[in-house]
Amino acid sequence: MSAVLPQSKLQDVGIRVLLTAPGMLVFAIFLLLPLGYVAVEAAEGQGRGLLLLVSSRSFWTGFLNSTVLGLSAATLSLALGLGVALRLARMGHAARTIWLFVIALPLTFSGLIVAYGFILAFGRAGFVTLSLEVIAGVDPAAFSQAVYSPYGLAFVYAYYLVPRVVMTLTPVILNFDHSQLAAAESLGASRRRTLVDILLPQLYGPMMSAFALVAAVAIGAYGTALALVGSQVNILPLQLFTMVSDAGADFAVTASLGLVLTALCSIVIGIGEWIGFNRAHRSRTDE
Amino acid sequence: MVWMPSAVGYWRHTPVNFDKLPALAKHPTGEWFTIHQLEIVFIVNKKLVRTTPRSFEDLLKPEYRGNIVYLDPRSTGVGQVMTWAANFAQGGSYENLAPGLSFIERLHKSGNVLRVMGTTPYAQFVKGEIPIWVNFVNDGLRAKFLDGMGDDVDVVSPNEGTVAAPYTISLVKNGPNPNAAKLWLNFILSDEGQRLFAEGFVTPSVPGVNIPETVRARLVTHAKSTLLDLEKSAAQLTALQQGWARAAL
Asked: Which of A39, A74, B3, B220 lies most in the core, judged by the most C-beta atoms within 10 Å?
């Protein structure tokens, strides 16, 4: 074996570095650099900020609430998104393209706009609320309480998390070889069994990735929550908002919370990707 | 942080009408002074509320269940001023926050609080999402006179008296055009400048300033209005915020 890489291989490496450089640069400038600044701020006074943070009760209730909100919004979105993706995969190309376009639309709205949209529809003076009052005698005050609650928040989050799930799962289902299902059915398996034993195991990895992605988005998002439920609902992004706005003062604590939130979201995504990767890897070596 | 300019400071300036400002509204030698102020009031949507509350004590009544929205003292100044107003209404002082915090606790326990907001929910109020909003006076008058709510909205100053937040201004040191800045500061404290503030529904800071009757008639009259002492309230900021969180959350 020669100590010098062959010319073509060198070129190969060169091209790869060149191609990844812009991405790496963006990653460094917009994630690593700011994160570094925040870390420096958090480290001020030998981790006093982090200590203060983890010794406060409201941090832990916020942590719990954020986790519950993230998991429930992600579960709801995954269930809805999976159904939609399965249906889309069975459509013709043209119909599917149109539907995908419509479904992707909520992804372009900011969280604030989504919140106001829901207020206009389901708020106390909302169109749906007032219609329900006329049609079914529903009390608008009680009905609108629901959309302004943490449950309402999970519901609104699903609105822009479902498209993310659909976008992740649809290509996977499209590439799924449906003759496997036909083969199982011809051997006498029921429709349900073929789905549970053949389709779902192959979708498991991508489903976990999608679940983790949308859970992380729900855990980290704040615009919708701020506009909708206000700051009384104790979730970590709103705690962070409260700390950095007008009246905030302790930067070490604030920076520590920022790091914790980043870490939490990264871990959730990491777990999902890891499960997804392992599954994909194992099923490939199984063959 | 690292990139903040290091030479921040103020040049002293005593503008027109400076002498007329009350002592709490200015730095003795003009490092800062108040250009207008905002009082805490109840902004009530009469389409959603049968009887308009007249006092902080009224807000505790069972008929206002699920009706009251106000802003978070941890993230907004208006939330802090409201807490002070409630505190004074309940017999508290700058040194004694207990009566105000006890009021907040009873208010939340009563179930009358609909939401505590992190940002001003003005659009929500105008859309009819909020029955009673405890907030600065100007948003109520704007909803009433500019955004078409008219007689559907009541803007009421609490019977026990209210607290006004001073909005202050300074001549920043080393600015490029200090003389232009002084002209501007003189103008906004002149009768004409103060009238413009009043037309925009914020309360003039110069007592007894000459304002046309038509403009004055639109403003709210207060049973009693106390200008917030910035130094004394700042010294209690952490106590107020932490106390509020314990009482309300």
From this structure: A74
Q: How far is CA B79 from the centre of its chain?
A: 9
Nearest-CA distance A60 → chain B (Å): 14
Residues of A in contact with B48 (CB under 8 A): 124, 141
Structural domain boundaries of chain B? Answer: 36-164+225-248
Q: How many CB atoms lie within 10 A of CB B207?
A: 10
Contact (CB, 8 A) for B132 and B64: yes
Determine the distance in angstroms separating the CA of B62 from the nearest CA of chain A, rounded to an integer. 15
Domains in chain A (CATH in brackets) are 49-286 (1.10.3720.10)
Are B72 and A37 a contacting pair at CB < 8 A? Answer: no
Q: What is the mean pLDDT of residues A2-27?
A: 82
* Cβ contact, residue pair B118, A248, below 8 Å: no
What gap in Å lies between CA A106 and CA A111, rounded to an integer?
A: 10
ipTM of the complex: 0.74
pLDDT by residue (tens digit) across A77-132? 999 999 999 999 889 999 999 999 999 998 888 888 898 999 999 999 999 999 99
Nearest-angstrom CA–CA distance, A246 and A265: 26
CA distance B226 to chain A (A): 22
Q: Strand locations in A6-148, DSSP E?
A: none
> Does domain B36-164+225-248 sit in CATH 2.60.40.10?
no
Task: Count CB atoms within 10 A of the CB of residue A255.
Answer: 24
Could you tell me the sign of the dihedral formed by the alpha carbons of A99, A102, A105, A107, in that order?
negative
CB count within 10 Å of CB B239 equals: 11
**Contact of A187 with A181, CB cutoff 8 Å:** no
What is the DSSP track for B140-186?
Answer: HHIIIIISS-GGGEEEE--TT-EEEEEEEE-EETT-S-HHHHHHHHH
Cα gap B225→B215, rounded to integer Å: 19
In B, which residues are within 8 Å of A145 by CB distance? Answer: 66, 114
